[in-house]
Specification:
The chain is mainly β. Helices cover about 5% and strands about 40% of the residues.
Length: about 110
Amino acid sequence: MLALEFPGSPELREQISFVEVVGKWGENSASIDLRVQGGVAPAPSAFSGIVPVEATVYDGYGELFGEILVWVASGYLSGIEYAWYGDSPPTSLPAKGSIVVELGTGK
């Protein structure tokens, strides 16, 4: 998702090697909280919110299943959310091949 170019993407890509998972959003949740360690630079203008990339998840039948959202707080990667469209929440992140990624406007 961060391979696409948008304002702040180079700085966010640099942060990946310094990220640690610091929590889950719930006991069986696939969504996680992140913290960036070290002296890596923040994205410009202390960007906060959802990165402007649409990452749509499809199930094995090609049906829309959910989306992946990458969160940033004060210019630093802060979370990965797996939002689903159905009754049963996922317990793990989807396989790379089931995600369609394109530049969007952010939420």
